[in-house]
Amino acid sequence: MMGPSPDPRVDEAGYVAHCLRFARRIAAPCLPFDEVGQRALILKELRRGWYPGAAARQMAAVAMDGDSQDRLAGIIAPSLVIHGTADPLFPLAHGQDTAAVIPGACLLAIEGMGHDLSRPFHAGIIDAIVQMVQGTKHVRWGEDEWGAAFGLLISGLEWLESRRLRPRPRH
Fold it and tell me: Residue 52: which residues within 8 A CB-CB, separation 6 or more?
């Protein structure tokens, strides 16, 4: 989609500009792009940890992974595949295929969402996860599995919120 990014140790402004171009490219086209918020997120991620070879390793892992249908077909956990209808990296057909291969999976195709998780979509995603969890709680998993899954869900939602750089209230 784009060339290599500048080394932020040498050209932080160029690196941030590169990341902003990419973020703008994958963002939901139906929403205004939050450049200020995205810039803050990029800088937060950069300060938290940046490794020069990480992006190349990620791309290589994706390329080398191959067909994952057999592994997906072996998933026994209740599954919700969340996919944006405006994702420029992976068209909706990818999400549809994934949902079709996982036994009993549901597909949540979010109209207008790109490859990012823009804040206006959070409530709908959270509602869908909660509905899925409530609707399948006693079907396939026991209490121990659901306790662990709910803990992961809460951790994931906390992570999602933390990526939006909202100040947390002090207790």
Answer: 7
Angle between the N-to-C axes of helices 143-162 and 122-136, in degrees from 0 to 180, rounded to the nearest 10:
180
Question: What tokens appear for 64 in the block?
Answer: 């080398």
Q: What is the dihedral of CA 45, 110, 82, 60, to 10 degrees?
A: -50
pLDDT band at 14 (very low <50, low <70, confident <90, very high): very high
Nearest to 136 by CA among 157, 105, 107: 105
Residue-wise pLDDT for 26-74, tens only, equals 999 999 999 999 999 999 999 998 888 888 888 888 888 888 889 999 9
**Measured distance CA(24)–CA(30) in Å, rounded:** 12
Q: Beta-strand (E) ranges in 44-96? A: 80-84
Q: What one-letter code names the amino acid at 63?
A: A
Q: Of the candidates 60, 98, 63, 54, which has an alpha carbon nearest to the alpha carbon of residue 79?
A: 98
